[in-house]
Write a structure and sequence with these properties.
The structure holds 2 protein chains of 2 kinds. Chain A is built from 19 helices and 27 strands. Chain A is of the alpha/beta class. In chain A, strands 2-3-1-4-5-6 form a 6-stranded mixed β-sheet, sandwiched between helices. Chain A has a 6-stranded antiparallel β-barrel with strand order 7-8-14-11-10-15. The termini of chain A are far apart. About 1% of the residues of chain A have low confidence. By secondary structure, chain B is of the alpha/beta class. Chain B folds into 2 domains: 180 residues, Rossmann fold (3-Layer(aba) Sandwich), CATH 3.40.50; 81 residues, no CATH class. A 6-stranded mixed β-sheet of chain B has the order 3-2-1-4-6-5. A 4-stranded antiparallel β-sheet of chain B has the order 8-7-9-10, with no helix packed on it. The chains are: A alpha/beta, B alpha/beta. Chains A and B meet through helix 1, helix 3, strand 2, helix 6 and strand 7 of A and helix 1, helix 2, helix 6 and helix 7 of B. Chain B: It catalyses: sulfate + ATP + H(+) = adenosine 5'-phosphosulfate + diphosphate. Chain B: Keywords: ATP-binding, Nucleotide-binding, Nucleotidyltransferase, Transferase.
Chain lengths: 628, 320
């Protein structure tokens, strides 16, 4: 190596060391539309030499073309990179930008202000350590300030900068600043935000952005950049024991079985005693394999692979934890849920819940209240709409290892996924496990379903008739029962109208009540199938999600979905009970097919065409399907 | 079993050996985040693939892929969408790395484009990129039935990239809808899709160009020699320095290739990728040059300067 190359190598090694040991801070900027977020970030990037000449030239050209700042540079154009954002002059989605100073590296998420894009704001906030909440000095605290501060607190960000921007437009008046700060401190106290630092700014002119401004001699605090370079948000979950949600079981050959994942909390080293959850089996760590090979200790944040002393059956979704300090395991929780779906959240409807590396089926059993994110007022709620936050009880179909979100983001934060569209429809933060989860156990009984079915000499089934009101469900179910009864089978019909007279007489016809109606009847049908019966369920059951929920209560093959396929015009023409006429007259709200949707089955076991065939012939088809 | 890719690395003086809770360095954190993402892809999808385009970002991805599943073999194959207009060295490098790492490599070239003789010189950058890259990529994904495609895009590259999720949903037509992206909270990635839909995954979203080079340096990752300065035959055309890699680059009247000391900051199709004059013939010098660079890495990409083919538009149509 030449002397020149050797010195270059030494210089780069030194630089690499400096680069690597510099801390990283992730922060978001949020606040109302037009409060100058993008200008602020643009200037931070520009001043910290985070912009290249060709990017600046392009920005200059764009600024002239859009002309929003006269001949000056419009930094917003640097961040609003989507065509629709430029057209409308608003931020739709989070932009992640990177810059660094001599002291620190930064990832800043520029979050949209519009209420419509609250979910994108939450996306940016979920990974941030610090939030910069911008307020326009002329306008003071707005609904948007409250909404964003609430989400900041919900997602556990404890360090907030209140950036009072556009101070140049209020003559750098201290009284204006003080009034806004006083109002915000009250809000922060309500929300439980511990650390608030207020800074008077002009992002456009640069006051107090990089250094203290002579225009605000009354302000003695730090500049914004000075704050960002020095704030210590503190480690989360430092006191927690070791937790490793398992992502992947690595089995390249017979001799190696490794459990791979990213350490969510604590540390691990060979020899440590661990417990695998939820099974509760114990073992000892043999090797900790990290990105550079075997290592003495694995720490939070590292992606590692563990090998254990015993052959435990551990799979993706399980959590390996310190044996002395394991997290709790439960299947019922109280949690805050930020609803992001276009369709409302309905209690009782199952969704996929992903927490750590585990995906389970979950439903909200109760919305205790919803929070008006603008006023923090608690309101009664039967469902949640887009961008609403509810405090809910959740029930999962499997017990999971978890921690309160306040202690551990990785094992306390979850998302909900719609089972039909696969869209991510909610973000949730676990508060605590419900005590009743631990106290209800399945009562073991000696006579089982198979024994009961044998004594009746039949295969128990749940035959689920779905279709519009007046489609002929009950007529056909009745014929089926008569035939089966004559053949000596044990059957029972659960009819929508009849069940509503008793078990479900407290329920109406809103979407929420329809979901609960189906949940209850599906549970009853399951008990009857367990008792060895053939159950004929005759319910409109308009939503796919609930029919799927019902299906999943049964063993494969036990659930037979029968779509009584009668077009709306035909059912309405028949109008056996006179209900369509009333609905058309506006006297029955939420009537399926009129002002409430019917979702036809996509994979019914049987589709019965009532236009072409007689009820008797259709009943015969059902019987043939049951007895084949 | 031992794969060359997975050989233990020589001790690194700058990497802490006894790690305390605060001892994770910047590159360690980025590396861990990327490995986490790669493992989620392997676990969450039926048939994932990694797009391998032979450049520096791809080289880093391939290295991370090895680490994520070591000591096992990565359960994700590679796909190279070959436009037929890559530098000759890139193809040789690609085949060598695939052989060395033992990771399965698929290569796809759009047969319709070949039949029509589509090329960057005859048809222009926009048509060439659309037919030989975007359409070719979609063909390959459909043909193999890949439901997740990992790519090396970074958020610091371009404005619309800065807006993209790490797991970026695509519909059955491979379209990206920037106004309707799935919320992506914490490191919880939604991998559920219907048949025919797919997801593009960007494990190094949060890396910068400088991070990539420093990681290549720290980990001693091989990259094509085109990144290092050398005497190469070039012509200056429309403000860009084009390398005369072979006879496929027709010279315009008055153009004569001359030897200059040049290197590349990014590697695309060779007539569309401008070289820069540079003396940086070692990794150390490349990094030193980066630290004082005043232009972005995409500045030499001819295609980026075509306003009708903005990155956002191309991505909506299925480009990476």
């Amino acid at each position: 190596m030449s002397a020149e190359n050797a010195s270059a190598a030494a210089a780069v090694a030194a630089y690499l060391h400096q680069h690597e040991t510099k801390g990283l801070l992730r922060f978001i900027t949020c606040g109302s539309v037009d409060d100058g977020k993008s200008t602020l970030i643009g200037r931070l990037l520009y001043e910290s030499k985070g912009l290249f000449e060709d990017q600046l030239a392009a920005l200059d050209k764009d600024s002239r073309r859009h002309g929003t700042q006269g001949d000056d540079i419009d930094y917003a154009l640097l961040l609003d990179g989507l065509a629709a954002e430029r057209e409308q002059g608003i931020t739709i989605d989070v932009a992640y930008r990177f810059f660094s100073t001599d002291k620190r590296k930064f990832i800043v998420a520029d979050c949209p202000g519009h209420e419509q894009y609250t979910r994108n704001m939450a996306t940016g906030a979920s990974t941030a350590d610090v939030a910069v909440v911008l307020v326009d000095a002329r306008k003071g605290l707005l609904t948007q300030t409250r909404r964003h501060s609430y989400i900041v607190s919900l997602l556990g960000i404890r360090h907030v900068v209140l950036a009072v921007n556009k101070m140049d437009l209020v003559g750098y008046d201290q009284a204006v600043f003080d009034a806004i700060v006083a109002g915000y401190r009250e809000l922060a106290e309500q929300l439980g935000i511990d650390h608030v630092t207020a800074i008077p700014l002009s992002a456009l002119k640069g006051d107090n952005l990089l250094q203290r401004s002579p225009n605000t001699p009354w302000y003695q605090g730090t500049s914004l950049l000075g704050y960002l370079e020095s704030v210590e948000p503190g480690a989360r979950g430092a006191a927690l024991g070791f937790r490793l949600p398992i992502q992947w079981v690595n089995r390249p050959n017979q001799d190696f079985r490794g459990f791979a994942g990213s350490i969510a909390a604590g540390a691990v080293k060979p020899g440590d005693e661990i417990v695998a959850l939820p099974s509760g089996r114990r073992s000892k760590v043999v090797r900790v394999i990290g990105a550079q090979g075997d290592q003495e200790t694995g720490v939070a944040g590292q992606a590692i692979t563990l090998t254990l002393a015993d052959e435990l059956d551990i799979s993706r979704g399980d959590v390996i934890a310190a044996a002395q300090q394991p997290p709790q395991v439960a299947d019922q929780f109280a949690a805050h849920v930020l609803w992001m779906g276009e369709q409302r959240l309905l209690p009782g409807r199952p969704y996929w819940l992903k927490i750590g590396t585990r995906t389970v089926s979950a439903s909200v059993t109760e919305i205790k209240h919803k929070v008006d994110v603008n006023t923090q007022e608690q309101l009664a709620a039967k469902h949640l709409e887009l961008n609403e936050v509810g405090y809910c009880n959740l029930y999962l179909d499997h017990a999971i290892a978890f921690e309160a979100y306040a202690d551990n983001r990785e094992l306390g934060g979850f998302i909900l996924i719609d089972r039909q569209t696969n869209a991510t429809v909610a973000a949730g933060t676990i508060d605590f496990a419900l005590r009743r989860a631990g106290n209800i156990h399945w009562q073991h009984v000696d006579v089982d379903k198979a024994a009961r079915a044998r004594s009746k000499a039949q295969a128990p089934r749940c035959v689920w008739f779905t279709g519009l009101s007046g489609s002929g469900k009950s007529t056909i179910a009745n014929l089926v029962e008569k035939r089966l009864h004559a053949m000596g089978h044990h059957c029972y019909i659960l009819d929508g109208d009849n069940v509503r007279h008793g078990l479900n007489k407290d329920l109406g016809f809103t979407d929420e009540d329809r979901v609960e109606n189906i949940r209850r009847v599906a549970e009853v049908a399951r008990l009857m199938v367990d008792a060895g019966l053939i159950v004929l369920v005759s319910f409109i059951s308009p939503f796919r999600a609930e029919r799927r929920m019902a299906r999943e209560l049964f063993e494969p093959g036990e659930f037979v979905e029968v779509f009584v396929d009668t077009p709306l015009e035909v059912a309405e023409r028949r109008d056996v009970k006179g209900l369509y006429a009333k609905a058309r007259a506006g006297r029955i709200p939420n009537f399926t097919g009129i002002d409430s949707p019917y979702e036809a089955p996509e994979r019914a076991e049987l589709v019965l065409d009532t236009v072409q065939e007689t009820p008797e012939a259709l009943a015969q088809q059902v019987i043939a399907r049951l007895l084949d | 079993m031992s794969l060359p890719l997975l050989n233990p690395l020589p001790p690194n003086p700058s990497a802490p050996t006894a790690l305390g809770p605060q001892a994770l360095s910047h590159l360690d954190r980025l590396e861990a985040e990327s490995i986490h993402i790669l493992r989620e892809v392997a676990a969450g999808f039926r048939n994932p693939v990694m797009l391998y385009s032979v450049g520096k970002d791809s080289s880093v991805l391939l290295h991370l892929l090895g680490k994520a599943f070591a000591p096992g073999k990565p359960p994700i194959p590679l796909l190279h969408v070959d436009t037929g207009w890559k530098f000759r060295e890139m193809i040789a490098f690609r085949d060598r790395r695939a052989a060395e790492t033992g990771v399965t490599l698929h290569v796809h070239t759009n047969p319709d484009g070949v039949a029509q003789g589509i090329g960057p010189i005859s048809h222009g950058a926009t048509v060439h990129t659309d037919v030989m890259k975007t359409q070719a990529l979609k063909q390959a994904l459909d043909q193999f039935g890949f439901d997740a495609a990992i790519g090396g895009a970074r958020r610091d590259e371009e404005k619309s990239r800065a807006k993209e999720r790490i797991f970026s949903f695509r519909n059955e037509q491979h379209r990206w809808d920037p106004k309707n992206q799935r919320p992506e909270l914490w490191s919880l990635y939604n991998t559920r899709i219907h048949k025919g839909e797919s997801v593009r995954v960007f494990p190094i979203s949060n890396w910068t160009e400088l991070d990539v080079w420093l990681y290549i340096y720290r980990e001693k990752i091989p990259v094509p020699s085109l990144y290092f300065a050398a005497q190469r035959p070039v012509v200056e055309r429309d403000g860009a320095l084009l390398m005369v890699d072979d006879e496929r680059l027709p010279l315009r009247a008055g153009e004569r290739p001359e030897h200059r000391q040049v290197r590349f900051r990014t590697l695309g199709c060779y007539p569309l990728t401008g070289a820069i004059e540079s003396d940086a013939d070692t990794l150390e010098k490349i990094i030193a040059e980066m630290l004082v660079a005043t232009t972005s890495e995409r500045q030499g990409r001819v295609i980026d300067h075509d306003p009708s083919a903005s990155m956002e538009k191309k991505k909506q149509e299925g480009y990476f």
